[in-house]
Write a structure and sequence with these properties.
about 160 residues; alpha+beta; 5 strands; Thiol Ester Dehydrase, Chain A
């Protein structure tokens, strides 16, 4: 098979997959920078941005997906962070209000990739963006588990 034909088939396959992939909803949570978030440089410490996303996701799990973290724990399930990435754009400072926007970027049999943006509310500028890659685990064993169908359904909005 000629190389051009293989490239064309691959390209068409990926376009088909992209069209079949569901588009997931984006959710927002408003948060404010607290005094203990500030580092020696006078702006929010880099680790706090990840805390903001986790706080937003916990709130969104209950409000938007209708399944709180407590419900996962009651079922013997939890989420482990497999990877986290953050790209800083502009700093947040004491008292700044922010919007944390998140959406499911990829839902796999045993995990989910959640992308986020942190927006400074005063001017709408992007402060940080990135993703968390989570794996569903059995709380008792700590081993990965297949995400149950009812959870997939709740996260597929």
């Amino acid at each position: 098979m000629p190389a051009g034909m293989i490239e064309s088939i691959c390209s068409n396959f990926y376009l088909l997959i992209f069209k079949l992939m569901p588009a997931y909803s984006t959710f927002e949570t408003e948060l404010q920078v607290r005094p203990d978030d500030i580092d020696m440089n006078g702006h929010v410490h880099n680790s706090k941005y990840l805390d903001y996303v986790l706080a937003a996701r916990f709130e969104q799990m209950e409000r938007c997906y209708k399944m709180s973290m407590a419900e996962f724990l009651e079922r013997g399930l939890s989420w482990y962070v497999r990877a986290a990435f953050i790209q800083h754009k502009i700093p947040l400072h004491m008292g700044d209000q922010m919007l944390v926007r998140t959406h499911v970027a990829e839902l796999r049999s045993r995990g989910v990739k959640v992308e986020y943006k942190i927006i400074r509310q005063v001017d709408g500028k992007l402060s940080a963006k990135g993703y968390f890659d989570y794996v569903m685990v059995d709380r008792e064993t700590g081993r990965p588990r297949v995400i149950e169908p009812d959870i997939v359904e709740k996260y597929s909005i």
